[in-house]
Design a protein that fits this description.
Elements lengths: L19 H21 L8 E7 L8 E7 L37 H21 L10 H28 L1 H10 L24 H22 L5 H39 L4 H6 L5 H16 L8 H8 L21 E8 L2 E8 L4 H26 L24 E2 L5 E2 L1 H11 L3 H10 L30 E2 L2
Antiparallel strand pairs: 1-2, 1-7, 3-4, 5-6
The protein binds benzoyl coenzyme A.
Benzoyl coenzyme A binds next to helix 2, helix 5 and helix 9.
């Protein structure tokens, strides 16, 4: 591995300088990427100096460099975790064989598809968040938004590198297409449902970073098990950056809950209307946002029973979360897994072949992780002495993919009629009126040390700086 030159056009630890053809291909993609950033990246921010971390290394200490950067000048580098000497395939038909440094011909199109699906989400999220820089509740939050945006951009680079380096001409075409599909576009939408939903205000931003970025964590962790070693090592390193994104989501919602509770304390009431009049977001509204973002994110795990997922696993392309820590044969041919199914009008649990249930297993790992976050939010409410507790709706609620997509399921897990759904949906999902209310709160608050009234300040700043630091300089 050569050492990394942060000043290179494309900083990297893949010896790009030694591979002129690949370097030229990526350098010719760069201007397209930059015009995409200009057009669909954070609106009106070209001249801002932002205190950003840039990945410059892959060692666990000191992998990032913090400095003021104008976002279009950010160094979107290509970094793969160091190879693990002698790494063997951990699961599926090829278990025990050496991992692959090149794509096996028979798995080429499947792997390309997985990489494209992963890559497509990254610029999608930047597009979804492009207007949020106009209304951030504080400079600290504004900086975190931009940090996430540039890193999602880098994650796109990570996938584009794999496509260019390992998939020849069709890889290059897929890399182009990544900049042609757009979030919410009627003709060329992004591939996965949740990435076509707008993220128009900051409550949605924090919920997205908690729920949808967490899908990223679990999908990347599964791809980090791949027998295709460059993919595994790329995803491993992406997970390092991803942790901050989920921190932004979890702590963001936590700070909103804290502020709401403070306002309820001051008013001595938990009446949602009074809370709203005081400029905070009532807990019932927060629950509706949880229901929405959770349900669209749960869809991202695919169908409960999927032969695609079984094939990815058997072929060694995509493993389970923390594959090596699971105590079984890592072949799963004779195993079963408990899956939620629809039987007539009832939701039942039934043992299904473990191989076809791989998506559902990952969804369960995700659900458990989400619940841990909710428990932490609930502690804040509990500390303030209120009885309300947030809960995750049933996994069948508001689904567009899989076993429950054809029926209506209530948050507590009952299959209900269309009429009952229509009667209750305004209690369960954000209404137009809710969205309009939340939008009224979205006013930028860019004075040092100040913060909008609907969210509490963070307990700590970024990189050892205080909350009232000038994280963004507007020039
Ligand atoms: N929307 O057999 P199934 C992140 C399609 S997030 C639309 O269950 P499979 C990030 C599916 O493609 C992580 N379509 O599918 C977060 C298939 O289509 P075909 C992103 C969907 O393959 C925040 C059909 O339905 N990474 O990084 O087992 C910010 C049959 O379904 C959806 C990945 O997703 C959906 N929700 O599972 C920034 C990893 N779900 O074949 C970034 C790579 C399913 O009939 N992707 N379909 O045309 C995969 O592993 C798989 O593609 C999926 C789907 C898990 C998504």
């Amino acid at each position: 591995m050569s050492s990394i030159n942060y000043n290179e056009r494309i900083p990297n630890n893949v010896d790009l300088g030694e591979n002129r053809r690949l370097q030229r291909a990526l350098e010719s993609w760069l201007p397209n990427y930059l015009s995409w950033w200009d057009e669909l990246g954070p609106e009106g921010t070209q001249g801002y100096d932002v205190l950003l971390r840039t990945a410059v290394d892959v060692s666990s200490d000191g992998w990032a460099h913090f400095d003021y950067v104008k976002m279009p000048e950010y160094r979107w580098g290509i970094f793969l975790n160091e190879p693990v000497p002698g790494r063997k395939i951990a699961f599926g038909d090829h278990k025990g064989e050496d991992v692959w440094q090149e794509v096996p011909g028979e798995y080429r199109s499947t792997l390309r598809r997985l990489i494209v699906t992963q890559g497509d989400t990254e610029p999608a999220s930047v597009e979804q968040q492009r207007l949020l820089g106009l209304t951030a509740p504080s400079l600290y939050d504004l900086r975190n938004l931009f940090q996430i945006n540039v890193e999602e951009g880098r994650h796109l680079w990570a996938m584009v590198y794999l496509l260019h380096a390992h998939f020849g001409r069709d890889g290059r075409e897929e890399a182009e297409a990544m900049l042609e599909r757009h979030s919410g576009d009627a003709d060329k939408p992004r591939i996965l449902g949740a990435f076509n939903e707008p993220t128009p205000e900051w409550l949605s931003m924090f919920m997205f970073a908690f729920f949808t970025d967490r899908d990223g964590k679990f999908q990347l962790a599964s791809l980090a098990e791949s027998a295709f070693d460059p993919l595994a090592r790329t995803c491993q390193f992406m997970l390092t950056e991803e942790a901050h994104h989920m921190f932004v989501g979890e702590s963001g919602v936590m700070r909103i809950v804290k502020r709401t509770c403070e306002v309820m304390d001051e008013l001595r009431t938990d009446d949602p209307e009074r809370v709203r009049q005081a400029g905070a977001i009532d807990l019932e509204t927060l629950q509706r946002w949880i229901n929405f973002h959770y349900s669209v994110s749960v869809d991202l795990f695919g169908q409960e029973l999927s032969t695609n997922a079984a094939n990815y696993y058997t072929q060694g392309l995509k493993g389970r979360y923390h594959e090596a820590k699971i105590n079984d044969d890592h072949l799963l041919v004779n195993d079963t897994y408990n899956v939620f199914m629809l039987e007539g009008e009832k939701i039942i649990e039934r043992d299904q072949p473990a191989l076809t249930s791989i998506n559902e297993k990952l969804r369960q790992d995700y659900i458990d992780d989400c619940q841990r976050g909710l428990n932490r939010w609930n502690k804040v409410i509990e500390k303030h002495g209120y009885d309300v507790r947030f809960s995750l709706p049933h996994r069948g609620f508001h689904r567009a993919i899989g076993n429950f997509s054809e029926v209506k399921v209530s948050p507590d897990g009952k299959v209900i009629s269309e009429a009952e759904w229509t009667k209750n949906v305004d209690k369960w999902l954000p209404t137009e009126a809710d969205r309009a209310f939340v939008t009224t709160l979205m006013k930028p608050c860019y004075e040092h040390g100040k913060i909008a009234g609907w969210i509490a300040p963070p307990t700590r700043g970024i990189h050892g700086h205080p909350f009232d630091f000038d994280y963004v300089r507007f020039n």
